[in-house]
Amino acid sequence: MELRVTATARDGAGVARAEDGRVIFVEGALPGETVVAEVVRADRRWSRARVVRVVEASPERVPVPCIHQLEGCGGCDLLHVEPGAQLRIKSSMVVDQLVRAGVEAPDPALRSLDDDHGRTTVRAAVVEGRAGYRIRGSHDIVTPDGCEAVDPIAEQLLVEGRFGDAREVTIRVGNRTGDRMVLVDGPTGGDFGIEVP
After folding, report:
1. What digits encode the pLDDT tens for the residues 107-163?
2. Rounded to whole angstroms, how far apart are CA atoms 163 and 122?
3. pTM of the full predicted structure?
4. What digits encode the pLDDT tens for the residues 60-87?
């Protein structure tokens, strides 16, 4: 179905309306775009869909730089958006949630992402000892051989770390200090068999 996207939902999906009035949340679509989308989950009043083809692209759309996102990796929702627009979208999501909660939302102060080294906190699932991201809408896991969205120190821990019997790991780094922390979620008692670089 062809849809005109008018807004961004709190999870980064584009928001459109079907001809019958249902709200459609379109993963990978941006406000102002016209897309051909395929419904992946339908409810009486709303549906979730994914972009099959972009008919009219937003000027804020950029090529996805990550092969893992193209494989379905759910680690990043806005890689198809230029960095300045990502910041505006994320800020508006926060302001919208504050307003919905009845909190007076301040005017967000936006800063440039030019000096940003990527995420300093990563939460990842573990399969066969390797950390990875869940595929969007699935319990399956993509184990990346690199991740441009995270700080280089966190990327090294994510890619080279071995986490034994853990179910999940949270990796945190201080991008100014180089300090590293790995939190492990797994079976109680015993040795997880963790090896980090």
Report:
1. 777 665 555 678 889 999 999 999 999 987 788 898 888 888 888 899 999 999 999
2. 14
3. 0.75
4. 999 988 888 877 788 888 888 998 888 8
| Euclidean distance between CA atoms 134 and 178, whole angstroms | 27
Kindly give, in sequence order, each residue whose CB lies less than 8 Å from that of residue 89, ignoring residues fewer than 6 positions away: 8, 12, 78, 81
Place of tokens 């339908």: 42
Instruction: Write the single-letter amino acid at 8.
Output: T
| Among 151, 155, 165, residue whose Cα is nearest residue 195 | 165
Distance, in Å, from the CA atom of 4 to the CA atom of 10, rounded to the nearest integer, reads 18
Six-digit token pair at 9?
Answer: 């939902």
Please give the DSSP secondary-structure letter assigned to residue 130: E
φ, ψ at 191 (rounded to 5°): -100, 130
* Full set of structural domains in the chain with CATH: 2-59 (2.40.50.140), 121-187 (no CATH)
CA–CA separation, 99 and 91 (whole Å): 12
Tokens of 95: 């302001």
Write out the H or E segment, with its range, that includes residue 172. strand 168-173
Helix (H) or strand (E) holding 155, with range, is: helix 152-160
Tell me if 72 sits within 8 A of 135, measured CB to CB. Answer: yes
The identity of residue 55, as a single letter, is V
DSSP state of 151: -
